[in-house]
Amino acid sequence: MEEALKVAREALDRIAARGLGGEVELYLQQARTTTVKVYAGEVESVSVAEPRGVGARYIADGRSGYSYTSGMDVGSMVEAVVEAAANSQAADFDEYAGLPDLSGGAGRRESTPSGACSPAGGYFAEGVSTTPLPRKIELAVEAEKRALAEFPVETVEESTYQDADTWVGVVSNLGAACVERRSFAALFLSAHARDGGDVQTGLGYSIGREPQALVPEQAGADAARKAKALLGARQCPTGTYPVVLTPEVSSAFVAFVAQALDADQVQRGRSLFAGRLGDTVASSVITIVDDGLHRDGLVSGSFDDEGVGREEAVPLVERGVLRSFLHNAYTARRQGDNGVSTANASRSSYRSAPVISPSNLLVKEGVHTQMELVGSIDRGLLIQAVGGLHSGANPITGQFSVGATGFLIEKGELGRPVKEVTIASDLCSLLEGVSQVGADGRWVPLHGSVRSPSILIGRMTVSGL
User: Fold this and answer.
1) Which sign does the torsion angle of CA 28, 30, 36, 37 carry?
2) The domain at 127-167+177-229 falls in which architecture?
3) pLDDT digit string (tens) for 323-382?
4) Are 201 and 182 in contact (CB under 8 A)?
């Protein structure tokens, strides 16, 4: 990794010697990823990939160009920068175009005393690279086996193991000089339980920094339990109910909130939160932060994909008040008023320029268990899963209408299972309607990296019978 930084610095020196006077950034990525899919106790597929390459960004006179190369030698990097410079000539002028200035004095989140990122470490575990492939296969098999042990679970659609051992680096002629190694491992499976013609599905998962942190038995048991519990589900009467959202469901809505907090969308007027910074947008019991430094977060790192160092969690909604949007260097500059990046620049790979994305989203927990939230309701619903939020929700208006499954709540107890109902509202009403937040937060990897507890909404429209 250190050698790659030296090569990148040499490439920058050669570019400077050529007389290219623009801002230059090199994003370096090398990874080894493994995906194993198991069905009926047998390996269905194994995929091992080793993506590696460099993305080059060149910005001069308000015009940006991008290029990339799979070569990580000096010559390939220089070629990529030259191509990016040529591409910039065809770009439209943008007065806010520019790299983050990390050479000092550019803003709290755009510089460090040395002008370079200082990785905090702790985001990589050796097990992801040292664990042999047969053991990774066993983890997927064990999860499936545990789910199938629960009658009447009859099949597991797919038991999947995934991991990644990745290092990333950012070097620029404006002071970025960062490199860091990161890892994650995860298990997912979907169990199907049958009772006659009634088939229900439950999802289980386990995540960690390395394979040794995964608990396949628990993932399998969770999938089976959820599927079994929904057998016999049917619609409930249409009405307005108090609703408890499980962590899996509340995390989906938190991720939806984050879409509307993207500063680029806000500045384009395509967010319901545009112009509302400092306003009360949620119940006072709601606090949401973006914490890219969290030790347990799946997308943690001491710097973002522009090399901007992370220093602390960013409060997005604090006790109901909208405190911040998610920024990269571009939107911070466009905001003016000494705006600074919140270190939320992200790339899907070295092949793409950075966009804005949350890191780890966390909802501050309360003091009550999920069953205590349920116990406070005379008649309501516990929502265990929702479907179609990505297509049934509008981040511009905040309106959503999604299918849901779960359980009736009757006199403080869980009642019969419910399916084929629709919950509809808008984000502001949902956030303002939160009356209690649970103490059962867990990491949910289904909508990014989110840690959220159960949440009690005082009133929500439910369409059923």
Assistant:
1) positive
2) 2-Layer Sandwich (3.30)
3) 999 999 999 999 988 789 999 999 999 999 999 999 999 999 999 999 999 999 999 999
4) no
